[in-house]
Amino acid sequence: MSPTKLHSGKIMITEVDTDKTEVDSFLAPDGNTYLTIRSVVYDSWIIWQDAIPFEKDLRLMLTQEIYDNIVELGTRVHKLHQSLPGYKALTESPFNFVLWFDPLDSDPDWNEGKKCRFMIKDFTAEELVYFNTLKKANKLEVKPMTSRLVEAKIPVKQL
Fold first, then answer.
1. What is this structure's pTM?
2. Of the ranges 3-7, 42-46, 82-86, 114-118, which is most confident?
3. How many Cβ atoms sit within 10 Å of the Cβ of residue 126?
4. Is the Cα torsion angle 78, 83, 84, 85 positive or negative in sign?
5. Can you tell me the distance from the alpha carbon of 106 to that of 133, in angstroms, rounded to the nearest whole number?
6. Per-domain residue ranges for the chain?
């Protein structure tokens, strides 16, 4: 039987046969293989499938530095999310990530995993920018792209 690709919510499942399914995974720079449904940050709705390319051959471009950038940015986005009203009452992911690590982009912010674009259910871009300003310890640049979509970036470290 040839593999059939099914999409179950945000999780891609490749059906090998009726008795066995293979969940999508990736090889991390530390040599370990992780499921793409694994949280980027502990206890977060942000998963690796949100951050890495869908194409498995592009995932091979994931270096330790890029991996660390994704974890750092994911941590900062998670902290922003924790500051939002209703955070603890959620039973499903409120995130819709549009773009994150793109190894083919010439911009280092994209090809090094330092920038992402996302929406959070029930919040406008303006509200996300506002709540980000309340988290002084959370160094994250957030700018609106549309009425709901924001772009978040790890700020350049000042010397």
1. 0.83
2. 114-118
3. 12
4. positive
5. 30
6. 4-153
